[in-house]
Amino acid sequence: MLNKYHEPYILRKVAPFKIDDLTLPYPEFLPRLYNFCIELGFRKGHIMPSRAFCSDENQGLPIILLTKHFGTFPFNHGRVGGLLAVDRHGPHSHHGDDLVILQASHVGYAPDSGEYGTYRRPQMSGNHLSVSCGKLTHVITPYLDQYLFARERIFLRKDDQGRCLITVKNLFIDFGSHPVEKGLVLKLSNIVDQDNQGIIHPVATASTTQSYEVSLQFKQRLDESGYQWHGGTGENIGDLLTSDLFYFKEDFHETGDSVLLEKNLLEFMPDIVSAKYPALRVAKTSIQLEFARVVQSIRMEEAYKNRNLLYVCGLNIDIPEYEGFPQTTYFAPWAAHVQLEGGTPSKYTHPLEQEELFAKLMELSVENPDQFDLKKSIQRMLEAPRLEIKSS
């Protein structure tokens, strides 16, 4: 008889994305990035930068500063939500001898409160606040709504017999005879015990709910967090509905380019919607997934072979005007990919990870002697003689 091999279910995770003490204001970040290029052997006047940013107006400062420090307006690799259009690698390669790609998702930050997720729009009256990245927010909103709904309708309580119970609306339970077709699904196997046949039995039922006795392991977990069980109807699970206790069964909501965002993020959606700042978590998650995808596409791209190329990605943190200081943008680097025309040194065989990349940037000068004088260039354009443009 042939042995049957069963592939285990393999989880995919994203690495921790740190922000504290790992951010740089753009006026400081971009000269360091330029000097990194020069250190790698890129040639002054031959570097073609490209950016993959969201289309929001608050991404304008990074684009202006890219122009200033690299001496040319950057190529546009960007798609919705800060995704990168890998089908534009070839066109990008035709615009310069040495190539730089800077990709970033973005999130708003309020320095007075320390909260993430919104941005004050100066072009709108009435101190108008809106979400910092409309596309990322739009993608996660249906899932966030379901999560907020569920945490108010799943209850923990202690009954008269002293049993610790979880009471769940039927619509969150993936019954064997009536599985959930669409929506949030509770992972009951992480909360209650199964019998020796792998069946989970309720201890009580009502018109729209099932109640189960929680497992010893789950009770210990809550006890260690300081949770106090209540009698009667108990209380809703609230913040205790953590990402390991549920998942989503969904048809994709998005269309066009946006569906790629949703496909990327779906398996990480429980972690995103249960985070303290979902807008921050989705921006960090999206850029991490993008880095792996884009590096693979760069390595496969014929037009990039035997070329000097630096690809850096991270998070743009949008800061509105605050206490008289102008609006600005900070950059939290995530990772970088380096390849060099004459062969990539062994120290760059693998990507530069976050702390290594930050340390490398901090080694470099914040002064860029080659930076472009935008004001002088515009003045020269204004003073140039008027040309007579003809059709033939």
Describe the protein's architecture and organization.
The protein has 392 residues and is of the alpha+beta class. The protein has two domains: 24-117 and 277-379, no CATH class; 144-249, no CATH class. The chain has ten helices and 16 strands. It has helices at residues 26-39, 60-70, 89-93, 134-151, 216-224, 258-265, 269-273, 278-300, 354-363, 374-383, and strands at 24-25, 47-52, 75-76, 98-110, 115-116, 118-120, 129-131, 154-158, 164-169, 183-186, 204-205, 209-213, 235-236, 246-249, 309-319, 328-339. The strands form four sheets. Strands 1, 2, 3, 4, 5, 15 and 16 form a seven-stranded mixed sheet that branches. A five-stranded antiparallel sheet has the order 11-12-9-8-13, with no helix packed on it. It starts with 23 loop residues before the first strand and ends in a 9-residue tail after the last helix. The model has no long low-confidence stretch (mean pLDDT 92).
Which terms would index this structure?
alpha+beta, 2 domains, five-stranded antiparallel sheet, 29% helix, 21% strand
| Average pLDDT score | 92
Distance between the termini: 82 Å
Report strand %. 15-25%
- Count the E strands: 16
| SSE-based structural type | alpha+beta
How many helices in DSSP terms?
A: 10
Radius of gyration: 26 Å
Helical content (DSSP H or I, runs of 4+)? 25-40%
The 3D shape can be described as elongated
The largest sheet is:
7 strands, mixed
User: What is the ordering of alpha helices and beta strands?
Assistant: EHEHEHEEEEHEEEEEHEEHHHEEHH
Summed up, the domain count is 2
| pLDDT < 50 runs, ≥5 residues | none
